[in-house]
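Journal club prep — side note

Before the paper discussion, L.F. wants everyone to see what a predicted structure for a comparable chain looks like in token form. Sequence:
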Amino acid sequence: MVAVAGIRVKKLDAEKCETTVPFKHLNKNPFKSMYFAVQAMAAEISTAIPAMIAIEKHDLSVAMLVVENKSEFYKKGVSKITFTCEDIQGFSETIEKCISTKEAHTYTAKTTGTMSDGTVVSVFYFTWSFKVREKK
């Protein structure tokens, strides 16, 4: 579905992860704005990738799962939207805590969706749970 919606990773570095989603026919609702579900996909990806990178730095198998999400919508999305997550360091700290304590831990990451003119369309909060998998 991510590919069908046209979601792309625009930027990924130690500071932030940005994803974009185009405003196209398949992504539009009957109100001529972008479906909230399409926004949610792009928003989730902008938080999932930093989490996956934080996990990959370790040899242990760590499970990750969205356990809660919250969203706020401010304006109609009527053009390409960029979601920016700047909570990168929090993922690394949470994974480290998870590995050192061998207990599940959660982290809530914020990502903000803006149109090219800078208008904030939506803000999403994804709470990710992390747990070290036991070896069998």
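L.F.'s comment for the group: The radius of gyration is 16 Å. Keep this in mind when we get to the figures.
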